[in-house]
Description:
The protein starts with a helix and ends with a helix. The longest helix has 17 residues, at 2-18. The protein has a six-stranded parallel sheet, with helices on both faces. The protein has a two-stranded antiparallel sheet with strand order 6-7. A two-stranded parallel ribbon has the order 9-10. The chain is 37% helix and 15% strand. It has helices at residues 2-18, 52-60, 85-89, 99-113, 129-140, 143-146, 176-183, 187-194, 218-231, 244-247, 279-290; strands at residues 37-41, 65-67, 121-126, 149-155, 197-204, 206-207, 237-238, 253-258, 260-261, 274-275. By secondary structure, it is an alpha/beta fold. Helix 4 (99-113) packs across helix 5. It has one domain (2-13, 32-202, 238-290): Rossmann fold (3-Layer(aba) Sandwich), CATH 3.40.50. The chain has eleven helices and ten strands.
Amino acid sequence: SSLALAASARLDARERSSRRPRRSRARATRCAAAKPHVVICPGLGNAGTDYDAFAALLRARGHGATIADVRRVDWLRNAAGAATPAYWRGTLRPKPTVNWYLDALANACEEATRDDDDVALILCAHSAGGWLARVFIDEHASEAIVGRIARLVTLGSPMKPAPRDVPGVVDQTRGILTYVDENCRSASELTCDLGIECVCVAGKYARGAETLDGVASAGAFALGQGYKQVCGRAAVDGDGITPVESALMDGARHVVLDDVYHTPLGADDAAGRAWYGSPAAFERWVPLALDPS
Length: 293
């Protein structure tokens, strides 16, 4: 049956993943007193400048912080993927479509390590930056940079592909997230193979609704339709974009925060819409995700 074939293909992909050569876990000697340098990986549609205030909070806490140089207009480059048959089949792969982003992340890591031979790196990845960081680690970064990465922290990142068997659900990544799930290292493999810890931070800002029950429920219904495109269900909790269940990788440490919104765009602490990098939310997850475990 088609289900059996799909299951077999997924198993084959997992077996290929387990047979990948393991990279050396050797790392440069690090100064124990130095805090890791945080490299911020912007989310879909965001510009690096959206994270300036977040980076300032990290620096005030004693971390170096470098933001990958991404402009909002850069995301239009992804449209090139639509010119390929794989896009329309829903089997698109990350490369070469997102090479521009991976290059920006590589440049940020090089900048972060240029003046300090001992500094460890934490990739702090927002939204789509989470799965892009996984591609970066497995398929793009140099071995020297991978050896510097101590931790991957994701903020509201959809880390699981949308289900294929739910009517009305269309994979927004056109197959890329399925590729990442099947071919890139899992959280457990990142830790076992490369010594990279994984921490997934998810927000519970609002719950979606499956059905429309009058004007009062219109917002929850609209929100639920968005959640459904990500996880296949509407009546779930999420940060306004990413359902909690989609943001938590198996094998990673999980941090779930109440009242945290997905994006810095439109965030407003005073209105009760703090995003992950807002002062109101920052100290609720940073000690759990960035400090030594």
